[in-house]
Design brief:
mainly alpha
Length: 344
Amino acid sequence: MSSSPPPNLTDAEEAALFDQQWQARMALNGSNDEDEDDDQNNNDTRGTIRTHGEMDAPNNGALLSEDLYPYSVEEGRELKRQKNLRSESDADADAFLKISHPARHAFHTQVVALQCRDMLQQLVADANCNYKLPDTLRKTAVDYGHICMLSYNAKYYRNPKDTPAGYLVGNIIAAMRAMGVKDLPPAMETGRVAVLAKVIGKALTDKRFEIKSQVVKSLEGKENPSNIAALTRACIGSATSVKPTAALYQRIAIIRSVAVKNMDAATATSKPGEDSKDKFWPLVDQRLETWRKSLTAPGALQGMYAKTYDEDVAKYGAPDAGIAVTAMKDVESWLVTLSGAMEK
């Protein structure tokens, strides 16, 4: 408001002008006071503590607008009737319809989701307990166990000392993964991997017993002992993927040489189920380990293998000419990979 009136105004004019300015000023001040009152009222509202009943009340302003609740109770019940729910689920749906606050809706939904998760986890656990290998994978696992026992460069035929249980089986499973064998259980599914390991372990046990039995049988026919080719073919048996190689002939000759010196150990067990009591294969592993540690000169170890083979041929006869020997370069790559699993 001007501190002095414009010039040439009469007293009445000056008074009228002042009155107008004063009213305008009062009107402006009154508007500001109302804004302050509104702010105070809003602050008071935000600090109000409401009960559950007030929060759930259907007339609780915009918080419970129709946009948040598109169904009436009757409409909701009609919808659930279309879903053919069980009685327990039907009752839960009714209870859910009666909830009017979004936070409670969300919590109810979360509880149901957690319940579903628990049920799924239990189903997975039950599935692992009842897990069975697919038929093709089981057949492959058995075949691979048999093939590995006929490895031409195996370091051990039994689980070596100072290694974790299932060492050989673990190496075989690793080789299977490297080759991309189908349907293998993931490594993280330890329960299912254990089922696979058990199948492979039994295959190793069965094949060890079969090889030992064939070796003992070859020594019992004194008048017509089996030559190394015939013995190797008998040891291969059903593992027809394995082809006779010169290296395999040498391995079978080594196994037979151990049996010759340890017939009591070779004949001590009469069935595969007694594999844990077997004392023959530890003797085979011991001989191989002794040779590896003692024969360190270049070519010395291979020379000992060849010497043992030559002695076998001299004692039991030359290999049958009718049985073809497979060259190492012709051995299929997957068989080489499996043989490598026994070399570790």
